[in-house]
Amino acid sequence: METTPVQCSAQLVSNGALPAVTDGTCAESSRTFNVAKNDDGSLLLTVSQPVTPSSDQKGYHTIAADEVVLEQTGASSQERYVGPAEFGLLSS
Question: Is the CA virtual torsion 28, 23, 34, 41 positive or negative?
């Protein structure tokens, strides 16, 4: 998998909780990402990169439940990721 860092983002509407993400995009890269919520409060980040027209290479990172905090922001609250800014991906 390509190792050059890139900026990835997704614009979603939520109730303040970090939402699940499908088809997040990365600037100046063919990589995409998904975020799935697990029952234990952790999140599974999956990064995909095309290798051939018919196959992708994928890497995974589990975001522990304690790396997401609930913050009060005025009259509302929102979840925010507070884990490391850089981490490796595990391959399947």
Answer: positive
